[in-house]
What we know:
Distance between the termini: 42 Å
Shape: globular
Structural class: mainly beta
CATH superfamily: Nucleoside Triphosphate Pyrophosphohydrolase
CATH class: Alpha Beta
CATH topology: Nucleoside Triphosphate Pyrophosphohydrolase
Strand content: 35-45%
Number of helices: 2
CATH architecture: Alpha-Beta Complex
Amino acid sequence: MEKRTVEKVVAYVVAEGRLLVFIHPLHPEAGLQVPAGTIERNEAPEAAVLRELCEETGLSIFARPEYLGAGLYDMSPFGRAELHQRHFFRVPLLQGAPERWRHLEASGGIAAPEVFEFSWVPITAIPPLAAGQGAFLHAIAILA
């Protein structure tokens, strides 16, 4: 079966030496993740990462995203005939945020809302991230 390629963004939101992570409390098997999503048609990756951050976190004040690089990730182990062309960004948060919070991510109205539970982890002790999302973590540690 032919795999389609989907353009994605992955956001490493950083503040005070910490990285923003989340879990799906209703789907713990999804693992620990960072905000990410699909680039819409005719959307620049920098715009997509900021849009996804607002949709997924409920936060809205970020510095300009810093491009870290790109990589392909095969989603077939997750039952999806897709290759994700992922664009990774470091995105400093410029507003206060709680230590933990839940946000109902609405996917821009495209899919049913999902509950995300956010928290912060020290950049020096990031647990493994699901589905290859940690591919560029080495780049944020030196910029923190």
